[in-house]
Each structure stands twice: as structure tokens, then as C-alpha cells.
Amino acid sequence: MDRRHTRIYPGSQEGKSIWRVFNVNTSFMNNGKQGDILTIDSDKASTVALRVGDLSPPAKALEKCQRDLFQTMGMNYDQLASLKQFPKPKGNSGRWVMATDYPKAAYKERREGKTQFRLDVDQNGKVENCAILVSSGHADLDRETCRKAVSRARFSPALDENNQPTAAPWVSAARWQVPR
Q1: Labelling 24: which of 2, 38, 77, 120 has CA 20 to 30 A away?
Q2: Number of independent structural domains in the chain
């Protein structure tokens, strides 16, 4: 497994144990061998070793799924897979969209939701554009998410395979929750 590109996080959701897998480099799965051992290391849990057979078919399916997902989010899978470093937020990205930014009508009506968004970051680390990937269900919350993220977000740019700064997207979410 290419540890530089694959991250696996144990966690829980709705009372169930789950593993979240990010940035999978499927090349490690295309060995065509029977009986290989797949080892999963985590800082927060024990090492897991699984005896596996030929992982080529699921690797192809996973890569197609990744490509399709990236395409629906307006991102180029091949370009992202070739990056040496993704854009890195400067400062606390959790402070880009805050409860104090609540649109007045949404706050008064106690509307809440989670807005998933993509920021297009140029080769200088400047945000050029914001796109809503998954709406909160409230247009004013989505608009405010992009407005605040574009005005507050700062990045160190992504680096290509030659360590040159390059444009790349950054994906995140803002949870709108009325303070209680």
C-alpha cells in the first residue's frame, strides 16, 4: 500500500464502527496474486492484516467509482492523483464559516444544514472560485458558505510532481447550526 496516498481512519457514525478510506492508490491492489496479505495500519487502532485473493476486479471498480465521484464534483482525477501535495489551508479552516456569519432570516427561522463545497485554488494559493457540491437545503446558507470561504480562505498552493506550485481544488464542508 502506498502510504503517501492512502489514509485509513477508524471511527464511528450513528453508533456503528466504520473505517474511512481516503486517497486510495489502487495500484497496490493490481497484483493478480492469490493469498496476499493486505495490512492496514492506523495511529488510533491496532494493525489489521487481511488475507486476500486477487484484488484486481475490486481495484478497477474502486478506481472507476473514484473517477466518477471526482467528475461529478468537477475535478480531474488524474491531475489530483499526480499531485505531490494538495493545497494546504493556512490557519484554522474551521474559522472560515462561523455561527456569527448566520444569515439573519436563517437564524431567526432556526434553519440548519451542512454545505459541502469546493474551492478552486490557483498556483499562488488564492481562491478563484467556490462551488456548492451538496446543498444544505437552504440557498442563503449555501451562498454565505461560499462568500465567507472565498473571502477568508488562504492556502499554500498544491505542488505538482516536479514540486512546482499548481492550481488544484480543495473540498470541505460547513455545518450551519443555530447556537443553543
Answers
A1: 120
A2: 2
